[in-house]
Amino acid sequence: MSSTKIHTESLKTELSEMLGKAYSPYSGVKVAAAVEYEVNGEKKVAYGVNVENVSYGLTVCAERSAISAAIAQGMTSISALHVMSNQEQAISPCGACRQVVTEFMGQVDGPVMCVNQAGTEVWESTLGQLLPNRFDL
Amino acid sequence: MSSTKIHTESLKTELSEMLGKAYSPYSGVKVAAAVEYEVNGEKKVAYGVNVENVSYGLTVCAERSAISAAIAQGMTSISALHVMSNQEQAISPCGACRQVVTEFMGQVDGPVMCVNQAGTEVWESTLGQLLPNRFDL
Amino acid sequence: MSSTKIHTESLKTELSEMLGKAYSPYSGVKVAAAVEYEVNGEKKVAYGVNVENVSYGLTVCAERSAISAAIAQGMTSISALHVMSNQEQAISPCGACRQVVTEFMGQVDGPVMCVNQAGTEVWESTLGQLLPNRFDL
Amino acid sequence: MSSTKIHTESLKTELSEMLGKAYSPYSGVKVAAAVEYEVNGEKKVAYGVNVENVSYGLTVCAERSAISAAIAQGMTSISALHVMSNQEQAISPCGACRQVVTEFMGQVDGPVMCVNQAGTEVWESTLGQLLPNRFDL
After folding, report:
1. Does residue A52 contact residue A22 with C-beta atoms inside 8 Å?
2. Per the entry, which co-factors are needed (chains A, B, C, D) (predicted)?
3. Closest by Cα among A128, A132, A134 to A108
4. Which three-class secondary structure state does DSSP give residue A25?
5. If exposure means fewest CB atoms within 10 Å of the residue's CB, which of B27, B103, C113, D124 is most exposed?
6. Rounded-to-integer distance, Cα C104 and Cα C92, Å
7. What is the value of ipTM here, to two decimals?
8. Interface membership of B96 toward C (CB under 8 Å)
9. Chains with at least 3 CB pairs less than 8 angstroms from chain A
10. Where are the beta strands (DSSP E) in chain B?
11. Which of B54, B71, B73 sits opposite A51 (nearest CB)?
12. Domains, chain D, with CATH or none
C-alpha cells in the first residue's frame, strides 16, 4: 500500500542526518544504517549508527546497531538493509555485519544497498552474494 | 521537574515487557536494559535487549544495544543504567558492557541498577565500583 | 622444498587432536583451525581453537584464535586456512572470521579448506568467494 | 622448582620483544600480554599481542590473544596475567579482557601486573579488584 511504502529518498535524507550522531572519535568514519522490516503487514524502519570504543574490539557497526534497535522494536525478519557513510566510496558491510544480517534475513536475495553521503556512489547487492555458504549449525 | 521525572516503577514495567523481545535462542537468557540520559535538560530513556548470534562472538548484550539506541537518538552522556533479566538472581553487566558504559558515563558514581524480572532481587552499584582503574588511553 | 612442505594429512591429525582443547561449554561445538603462512621462505603453521565465554559476545572463534597465534609468531600474510569441527557437516568460517582473514590474506584466491572430524565431509573455497566486495577503507 | 620458576625479568624482556609483533595500524597502540598457567605442576607461559582490524569491532586485545594461545596449548586455569604496552603509562586490561580472564581465573586474588615498555611505570592489581561482582550465570 502506498501509505506504508518506504520512500527511498526520505530514507536517504534520514540516514544523512543520522551520520551526525555516529560516535567515531577514533576512526573519523561515520556510518548510518537502516533496517527495513514488516510487523503485521506494516512496513517499519529502524536506524543505527556506528559506536566506537577506546577498546577498539568493543566497537559496534551501524548495521548491527540498527539490527539491535529493530529487535527491540519487535522485528523478527529483515526485508532490506541500507548503509550510508561519510566516505567517498559506498562502503559495504563488514563480515561481522553480514553474519548478523543473515541471522534475521531468510531470503538469500534480500537487498543490501550502500551509498555515500553525497548520493553519487551507489552499490547494491544481496545477502546471498555478500555471504555465500554462510556459517550455520 | 516532576514532569520529566523518570518513574522507576514504569521503567521496570517497560523492561519487563521488553524481555519478551530479547533474541536469545542459544542461551535462553533474556535481558533488557534501559539507559537514562539528558538532552537539553530533558530526561530520556533508550532501551535494548540482548541479540544473540549463531556465531556466539557476534552476540550483543542488552546494555550495549541500549547504548547504541541512545546514541542514535542523540545521547552524549549516560545518567543511569538499568538491567533486568529473566534469571532468578539480578545479573550484573559483563566486563565488555562496563567498558562501553564508561565510554559515555563521566561520573564514577553513576548508578547501575540490576533487578530480576520478579523484582524481588535488586542489586545496585556504581560504574566506579564495577570497573575501577578503567582502561583508557 | 619437500622438507618444509606441509603435509595435509599430518595437519588433519593435528587439528583432530586440537579439537579436544576447544573451550566450548556453552555450545558444545568444538572447532580447530590452522593458519599456514611463510616467513623468510619457510612454511609455518599456527593453530587455534574456539574459546567461548559466559558473556557470549566475548567468544573467539578458532579461526581468529589461530590468526592471533600466527601474528604473535611473526606472521604477516596468510597462505591458507584450514578449519575442522566436531559437527557432522564441514562448517565454513563465520562472517567475522572471513573479515579477519581478509586483513591478512592478500590474494582473493587464497584457499579456505573445511572438513569434519571424521574427514568424510570436505568443503573448499577461496577468500574471494567467501567475502566478495569486502569492507575496506 | 627453580627450574620451572618464571623469572619476571625474562618475561619482561620477552614481552618487550613481542611488542614489535603487535598488529595495530589503526591505533598505533602496541600491547603484549603473557598468561602464566600450570599443567601437571609445570609452569608455562603463553603470549599474545593485539590484533586490530579495519572493522574496529573485530579487534582482539593482547590479553585475549594470549588466553586463546594458552587454551590451544592446554591451559585450564590462569595463575597470573602480565600486560605491557608502548604507552607512557602502564595500561590496565579493558573490561572485555577482564571478563575473559575471569572465565579462567578461579581465585579473586589472581594477580594482574601491568607495566610500560620502559619498565618505569608498574601497576599491580587482582582480578577481584578489576572485575568485582562479575557477570556470571
Report:
1. no
2. Zn(2+)
3. A128
4. coil
5. D124
6. 18
7. 0.93
8. yes
9. B, C, D
10. 31-39, 42-49, 78-85, 111-116, 122-126
11. B71
12. 2-130 (3.40.140.10)
